């Protein structure tokens, strides 16, 4: 069976590195993107199974990326988890209504991410 | 902490709480007792234990016991039992009860995540439930009743949608909304105590409690649970917990991990 794939979209290299370690520990093969445009380009060639998505990024933010992804053919398939420092209920609700499968408030740890991925049926 | 201190702690936990404090937990025990010693006005853990052994004061003994219990819990832990509860048990039992009222007991609720998860599932299913949650640890019960969780706690096992629906942000934590908060009653109870006679429960959740107990105490606790459960009720244990050899009061339900019903032997005795 092919390894399961995860795309981590965040402009912080450190966050990407931390998230990569956790997700690889859950058995996923990981790629990274530094903003929404890079992530869209990536998804146009190969659609990952799950996407961990930051909100505030240069060039294209997470919400814009998510709306464009969901409008693409096959773009409804990946499970998308927003992973951001935003904790306002209105912002969380906005992300969910834009098509995010779940929402993770930073800081998070492996147990949280693992339980969220289980809850959306990705693990 | 000396070996002798630890052996005495093991005896204390076993006799008062039925809790098995295994040997590899000696360092964890020393670590957990540090804050208790400070709170109780002792310079060191050793000084606190020396005082406890020379003059066993109940309040100090319980402060020590509480710190050494296993508080591990999270929202919708193992998921399956909560889906079974909301989709199968509540409708099936509610159908044959006056006003559809189903009485639920979360026994060994720690900081409340299990009880709150049950309440969310029941309210979302539109069920009429009374949920009672108890724990041996007063501090855990107090936190459970408060219904306030950190960002780490609230996200462990709970989806963002459920979090938004049932909790509201207070400073940098999350507090159960009024509708949810009214759905659970919390109190302190020791499962080793003689069970009180009162209305019995339709469903008892007692997960990951028995596996931490001294094997010789399990049978009595299970029999006490049996007495508090209606004859057509369900007992739910932790995913890996078995009752083999501990009791003849219950039998496992095939295909439902952790789900038990009363055994025929108990039912004929009752009749």
Description:
The complex is a heterodimer of chains A (123) and B (271). By secondary structure, chain A is α/β, with parallel strands linked by helices. Helices cover 42% and strands 21% of the residues of chain A. Chain A has 5 helices and 5 strands. In chain A, helix 2 runs parallel beside helix 3. The longest helix of chain A is centred in the first third of the chain and has 13 residues, at 13-25. Chain A is globular, with a radius of gyration of 13 Å. Chain B contains 12 helices and 10 strands. The model of chain B has no long low-confidence stretch (mean pLDDT 94). Chain B folds into 2 domains: 3-68, Chemotaxis receptor methyltransferase CheR, N-terminal domain (Chemotaxis Receptor Methyltransferase Cher, domain 1); 80-270, Vaccinia Virus protein VP39 (Rossmann fold, 3-Layer(aba) Sandwich), CATH 3.40.50.150. Chain B has helices at 3-17, 26-39, 45-54, 58-68, 80-94, 113-124, 138-146, 151-155, 160-166, 178-181, 215-227, 264-270, and strands at residues 101-107, 128-135, 148-149, 167-170, 173-176, 184-188, 201-205, 229-236, 250-252, 259-262. Chain B has a 7-stranded mixed β-sheet. Chain B is globular. Chain A binds chain B through residues 87-89, 92-93, 95-96, 100, 102-105, 107-109, 111-112, 115-116, 118-120, and chain B through 74, 76, 79, 151-152, 155-157, 159-161, 163-164, 168-169, 172.
